[in-house]
Write a structure and sequence with these properties.
Elements lengths: L12 E4 L8 E8 L40 E7 L7 H7 L8 H15 L8 E4 L8 H4 L13 H8 L10 E2 L2 E2 L10 H7 L6 E9 L12 E10 L3 E5 L9 E4 L7 E8 L6 H26 L10 E14 L6 E8 L5 E2 L7 E3 L6 E3 L2 E17 L13 E9 L5 E10 L5 E12 L4 H9 L30 E17 L5 H5 L10 H34 L14
Antiparallel strand pairs: 1-9, 2-3, 2-11, 4-7, 5-6, 7-8, 8-9, 10-11, 12-17, 12-21, 13-15, 13-18, 14-17, 16-17, 18-19, 20-21
Amino acid sequence: MAEAVWSTDTGEAVYRSRDPVRNLRLRVHLQRITSSNFLHYQPAAQLGKDLIDLATFRPPPTASGHRPDEDEEEEVVIGWQEKLFSQFEVDLYQNEAACQSPLDHQYRQEILKLENSGGRKNRRIFTYTDSDRYTNLEEHCQKMTTAASEVPSFLVERMANVRRRRQDRRGMEGGILKSRIVTWEPSEEFVRNNHVINTPLQTMYIMADLGPYGKLGYKKYEHVLCTLKVDSNGVITVKPDFTSLKGPYRIETEGEKQELWKYTIDNVSSLAQPEEEEREQRVFKDLYGRHKEYLNSLVGTDFEMTVPGALRLFVNGEVVSAQGYEYDNLYVHFFVELPTSNWSSPAFQQLSGITQTCATKSLGMDKVAYFSYPFTFEASFLHEDESADALPEWPVLYCEVLSLDFWQRYRVEGYGAVVLPATPGSHTLTVSTWRPMELGTVAELRRFFIGGSLELEDISYVRIPGTFKGERLSRFGLRTETTGSVTFRLHCLQQSSGLPCRAFMESSSLRKRMRSVLDRLEGFSQQSSIHSVLEAFRRARRRMQEARESLPQDLVGPSGATVS
């Protein structure tokens, strides 16, 4: 006999079904592998006979004619919430004094009918429905963490032992709810009872009585074969999963006579008829159509369009993290600057924000603070320049990183700026920062013990400020120190009516612009990188010229070269 391949994956599986759960059918097959009635040896009748008859290994029949080998194997098809009584329940409910609840009396009547009709068809396999008073101790004692010395909390114990039922919503009389929505002074008992999530859920257990022959009906021999849970959304949880192509599951009993059982669980639900599927599709189509109409009524029928020649920019951003800074407990102050008068934002729009204070954690050689702080803003650009070479200046995102110590003293850790992406989509930007610094040890001691440091009066001085009207901006003499970096994640959306609209074609003055603003922005992303490189060269050249002018005249040659 080939060695059986057991299925060791006893975890739960989750299914979603649109069919009514009452159509669910499961076939459970249970079989004993090792028999408790081992070889029943009988000696040979004649002396000198070397062979033993195989019939001598067969267990003897009982007085009623029933043989124990009939309990070796059993197969049952079970429906959802179908009640199959165990031997323990049959013995219990036959005694009328043991019946206390209406459900107990109902079970007693059903058992008496079964006895009159020839007895129950099942012997070892039975079920506990959602109405039965049964709690699986394994689910009750399951751990929530991997700690060996875990002590279950009050919430864990309540969630494990809660019997979640379907609850009917209370109606309204005269537009007034029967129960109070807000309890202003909750008692301790009220808090304890309402701290548990009560999701509508129905549970069913498929059990097996694995007791030896003649000892059926004892609680200690009951074992859970399968647990079924169904919620109001059609989600079915099966533990363990259906056997299908996998091997059977195994159960080893404990005690003096250790036995090995195997069982399989198969889904044998009947397929829906074509007429039923067609009727169901019509119902769902009608339901989805009504839901779509409801959503359309919430959104409205008018889609807001931009004016001709205008571009609307939506940015959903996130301050992801900051790393590489000297001190702990960081927070970021950021704002968006609209560069020219052609850019505008709604009056209610807030173009600045401050993150929460976040402690850092070690990641490699750096200390990283994860903020995950979301922000959003909207801005509009109205193109008024008639020249084809004119490109719009893009908004700039400025950030200031600060640290906060135990005494609520803050220090500037760095300034940074980045131009918002000119192309729509998702972008992850890392902004390098710097901070102004003073020479000498006294300044660093003051920064460490007292807090505070040199600050910029205008954060836009990180780049060229929008208020600057001159030709040259000199930063000569400003001592800075490179610090860490801030990571932003931006999701940019752009909306433009485009030039093919009738509004652009009606005016002769606008016929020169045959491309929309979005078409022009395709080349802006490439030109911006070139402009940034040229701007860096111009700054370096300007600094060299300013440094040359500050030197004494006797060290500067006639052609402008310095004399060593």
